[in-house]
Amino acid sequence: MTTATDAETAPETTVSTEGRGAVRLQGVTKRYGDQVAVDDLSLTIQPGEFISLLGPSGCGKTTTLRMIAGFEQPDEGDISVSGTSVRGIPPYRRDVNTVFQAYALFPHLSVAENVAYGLQQRRTPKAEIREKVTQALDLVQMRRFGDRKPTQLSGGQQQRIALARALVNRPAVLLLDEPLGALDRQLREEMQLELKLLQSRLGITFVFVTHDQGEALSMSDRIAIMRAGRIEQLADADTVYARPASAYVAAFVGQQNFFRGAVAESGAAVSSPHALVRGTAVTLASTGQGEAAVRPEYIRVEADNGGVLPDANAVRGRLIGVSHLGDTMQYLVQLGDDQSLIVRRPTPDAPSLTIGDAVVCTWAAHHVLLFPADEAAREGGYVAPPTT
Ligand code: ATP
């Protein structure tokens, strides 16, 4: 880590008008042998923005982060931080710092010594170190733990210390690589709130790597959804949830039910074996194979009274699972050997149904998104099988 002044005076730099904390990747490619880990990726991150890189394992999130940090060098393209190209600048002289999932604290040093370590290496005056360490520990509410050893702390507390250590010199950009991955669910959710608060208070740019879509949705100003080394969609949480740019994004963010089949009605519907599904086309051609996506919360389920079904957006099935999720009820409806639907209703309005019941599911066309078929991505395993 370094200060902006150090970075700006580094020899190979070009200074632009971008503010401190801006990060720009332009046409960045990284290969490991034949493997393209990051593929011609361009991304501009605003100063003070909280951006998440989200995607399945192996899509290039960590490699992207490591290139911004300086632990890896791009084969092609350029990266700038605060308007300055970081090409050739070693990690410790970039105005960024990284927090990893493994806290990497020195076990033989106290908490305060761990936080002070980087400042000592830079021969910062003692009084200044003391002040900065106290401030950093205050930031993460850990001041009273300064004399403890890392082994005397819980996982969540150790991660707070790792954060304090990364923030002690107030970098312009904090890079976080699955920092909450080792914590249990409740602590994880608490830390998500804390991280977000901390970030807005400090105004530091956060680049957060995660494969957990809930985490990305709850914290980020924008989310970059990555696939095979590229960004498939870059948008805020509302947009990626409500208007996913592709079936891949639709499947990765939140839960979806997919109907697959031939495109029908000149691109206004997909004719699946179980139903004709009408919807809103996102990028669908008027012929070929397509998929229709509808979220569990938009499907109604009721007992089958034997009446005639509408010509589209309705299916008969059998209830094979009911789960109480607290504020919602979740139903699993078997349509045939090859497909089931997940349905969620708010608990107060949930129909009273029993496993084995014959049911009818219906949904409105304006809640259906239609995409071109994307079997290649599916074979990569991005769709989680429905579970009760
Ligand atoms: P995960 O969520 O599992 O950490 P990721 O999205 O962060 O995955 P990367 O770690 O960036 O993905 O890896 C991208 C691709 O590059 C993967 O196919 C990976 O196997 C490969 N890769 C990453 N680091 C190396 C390396 N040092 N040597 C060879 N291949 C690598």
Short description:
With 388 residues, this protein is of the alpha+beta class. Helix content is 24%, strand content 31%. The protein contains 10 helices and 21 strands.
Descriptive labels:
21 strands; disordered N terminus; disordered C terminus; 6-stranded mixed sheet; Rossmann fold; single chain; alpha+beta; binds adenosine-5'-triphosphate; 388 residues; 10 helices; 31% strand; elongated; OB fold (Dihydrolipoamide Acetyltransferase, E2P)
Description:
It is built from 10 helices and 21 strands. It has helices at residues 4-9, 61-69, 111-121, 126-139, 155-167, 185-202, 213-219, 237-242, 247-252, 375-379, and strands at 23-32, 35-45, 50-54, 76-81, 84-85, 96-99, 173-177, 205-210, 222-227, 230-235, 257-264, 269-271, 276-278, 280-281, 289-294, 300-303, 314-324, 328-334, 340-346, 358-362, 369-372. The strands form 4 sheets. A 6-stranded mixed beta sheet has the order 6-7-8-3-9-10, sandwiched between helices. Helix 3 (111-121) crosses helix 4, helix 3 (111-121) packs parallel to helix 5 (155-167) and helix 4 (126-139) crosses helix 5. It is elongated. The protein starts with a helix and ends in a 9-residue tail after the last helix. Mean pLDDT is 88; it is low at 1-17 and 379-388. Bound molecules: adenosine-5'-triphosphate (ATP). Adenosine-5'-triphosphate is lined by residues 32, 35, 37, 55, 57-63, 211.
Structural class: alpha+beta
User: In total, how many beta strands?
Assistant: 21
CATH architecture of the largest domain: 3-Layer(aba) Sandwich
- Rg: 25 Å
Which runs of at least 5 residues are low in confidence (pLDDT < 50)?
1-17, 379-388
Assign the CATH superfamily of the largest domain.
Answer: P-loop containing nucleotide triphosphate hydrolases
Overall structural domain count: 2
Strand content: 25-35%
CATH topology value of the largest domain: Rossmann fold
Number of helices: 10
The major pleated sheet works out as: 6 strands, mixed
Question: How would you state the average pLDDT, rounded?
Answer: 88
Q: What's the CATH first level of the largest domain?
A: Alpha Beta
Shape label: elongated
Helix content: 10-25%
Main-sheet strand order equals: 6-7-8-3-9-10
Distinct ligands? adenosine-5'-triphosphate
